[in-house]
Amino acid sequence: MTGRILIVDALATNRIVLKVKLSAAFYRVVQARSGHDAIGLARRARPDLVIIGDLPDMKPADFIARLERELGTPAPPVLALLPQGQGALRIAALQAGAADVITQPYDENVLLARLRSIMRHRQLDADLGMPPDTAHALGFAEEPAGFERPQSVVVLADTIERAEALRTRLAGSPGLDITALGHGEPRAAAALRRAPDAIVLRIGPENTKPGLILLAELQAAPRTRRARVVALIDDDIAHLAAPVLDMGAHDAQPATIDDHELALRLSFQLSQKRRSDALRGKLEDGLQAAVVDQLTGLYNRRYALSYLKRMIAEAHAAGQTCAVLVADLDHFKSVNDTHGHAAGDTVLAHVSARMRAALPADSMIARIGGEEFLIALPDTSLSGVRHVADHLRRVVRDTAVPLPSGDGPVRVTISIGAALATPTTPRAQTDVGKLVAQADKALYGSKSGGRDTVTVCMRPAA
What we know:
Blueprint: E1 4-8, H1 12-24, E2 28-32, H2 35-45, E3 49-52, H3 60-71, E4 78-83, H4 87-96, E5 100-104, H5 108-128, H6 132-138, E6 151-157, H7 160-169, E7 176-182, H8 186-193, E8 198-203, H9 208-220, E9 228-233, H10 241-246, E10 251-254, H11 259-291, H12 301-318, E11 322-329, H13 332-339, H14 341-358, E12 364-367, E13 372-377, H15 382-397, E14 400-401, E15 410-411, E16 414-421, H16 432-448, E17 454-457
Parallel strand pairs: 1-2, 1-3, 3-4, 4-5, 6-7, 6-8, 8-9, 9-10, 16-17
Antiparallel strand pairs: 11-13, 11-16, 12-13, 14-15
Helix pairs in contact: 2-3, 3-4, 13-14, 14-15
């Protein structure tokens, strides 16, 4: 595993021992002897994770808060190594946002597994993110809505009694919708299909194998693979903590964990889940904005040309006929000149919606210019193209568009040109550009023939 880790400890011996272990696991290590030095080094070296031990100049919680202030959000995750008997420091560190707190002396295998887990999930979040400046420039950094729905948590144990006992331990956590279920309950599958935000999974000696199998299934299932999983492991099988983390659990703790600490750890995982969901939502919005015309909701030219290329290749391989239609609203300039550009936008949006609804489900429609549209029809025929195009023409002609000003309604017509790529058309003559050019020529024929008409190009694209 690669990644840069900053070790902070006042004792050189502790730093050296930990550096040897981490270097053997292929991490790059930088070191600091105090919290103050570490924050300066973190600003320069930008570590992927920070491990803090004995800090001579500040408490762990203060270090975490200052690191976030100095480096901004998200700061690198912090893993604290604290001696036994430091319950107050442990809780304070978790409340401040520590990714984990591990008691010394620690199990080396568990420590390395925990590092792998933190680094893995951090990278997944990084893959969803984008630089803040880019986000603002593209308009993907709007403030989130004030309302936040309650987050859902499913508690799973081998019996419903143990699951209910776990739910009782979490009952004081605000804003959670908690469902307790036994592994074999028929309603367990239905609850998991509702895509919970987090899953608390108890694994004991009596259900070790089924518990591990369930963990693997949770990571693979589409509805649960994004849920944050907190595994609670009985002391008798404590050695499974490292494998459980490597199997995808986000946290693995003894089943005897203090209730307050359990609630804090679950809260941390849920906050990470909410952040990941927000990043994923912004990414999906960004991807949609890259291929969708914002005014009409139709695909844009970039997506349309890529789609055409795939459609033509698939039709050629399957021995099918496909078609491209280019459509243009007639005398649209007069709408803008008479009623204003806001009215023109209304007409475009309204007509686009009607055209999309009138097309077959397997078709694609895009806005490729001001009032120009491109339609792709896979697996069709000459008669099918004529039928679809003429239906589209009549739908637009019969659409009365009400205007925001109260004027109108406005009616427009559309001219359409179409070109086909058949199984007998030579592959070299079904290039996207050539096919669109043929449809454009057919559109010109419709315009010169009086508009509100359909022309199909009968010659192969050349």
